[in-house]
Each structure stands twice: as C-alpha cells, then as structure tokens.
User: What shape does this take?
Amino acid sequence: MSKKDNKKIQKKNKTQDRIAAKKAAVLGTEKKSRMPLFVAAVGVVLIAAAAFFYLSESTSNKIAVVSGSAETTSTSVSFPVSLFDDGKARHFEHVDGNITIRYFILKSSDGVIRAAFDACDVCWPAGKGYYQDGDVMVCRNCSRRFASVLVNEVKGGCNPAPLNRTVQNGKLVITVKDIQQGRQYFNFGSKT
Assistant: This one.
C-alpha cells in the first residue's frame, strides 16, 4: 500500500468519525463523560456529611458550664433555686486535683430540682455525658433517653449517676464530698 492510499484511508476514517459524531449528537446517543456526575455526587455527599456533623454538635448538645451563679465554700456549692425555673439542664464542673468532675442540675417536669453526674456506670469511659432534649436527658455515647423525672431517682446501667443535693433557704446545696464521690467517672487515666 502506498503512502497515497494510506492517506486516503486515514482521511476517510476521519470523515466517517466526524459523521458518526454529528449523527450521535443529533440523535442524543453520543458517549458522555460521567466524571461531572461523579464529582457532583461526591460533593453532595460531602456537604451532607458536613451538615450532619454540624447539626449533631448544635448548641443544644454542647456542654454549657455555668459558673457565675454558684457560691462555693470549702465544703459545699450552692445555687439559687430560681436558676433552674426554666427546666433547662445546666452543666457544671468541679476540679478535684487533676480530675474535672462534671455534673448537671435541672428542674424536672414534676417540679423537682434534680442533680446527677454527667456520666453513668456504662458509658463513662467515652467521656461524653448527656444533653437535654425536651423533657429527657440523652446519652451522647449510646443515645439512650432518660425522663427528667427519673434523674437522681434511678441509678445503675446507663442512667445518669445520681448526685445528692438538698434545698435550703431558696438554694440548692451540694456538698463537695458528694461531688468528689463522682471522681471515678472522670478518671480517664484509669479506663478499663
């Protein structure tokens, strides 16, 4: 085959390729790249994941440590009872040596002011505690839900570990000794 014949064949193939491409474009049968669709799908998944993590860490789930309202002595911590009138759980911290003990206080739907450690017998090693969702406290680790009226009443398992408290002269009083009883739930250096 001569060079001339070879050029004719190449020209004919190019012409046929152009004709096939035009025909496919007109009929809508041309091969399309799926890369833009793949990139868009990956983008949607990433945006959805980011939104999920942002919403799961919303302000209602974050620990809000209230400190200015407490009166602290060497033997007790007290809070004005009126601080809990809105029924919202308030989280507090007590530093005992190198361990920070977290607890929460709320006025339950039956009007009782309740206190518990921000930990339980089961999920404490995760160090996540609880957040409030309406009239329940929710474990951040296992998502179990506990009615506010049972906080400080039921103990064991994944229930918030009860914290002793008393009401005296319009103040909720918790002894430092009772707070220190929760040290075991926050000693993460000795996780088993």
About this structure: The chain is about 25% helix and 25% strand.
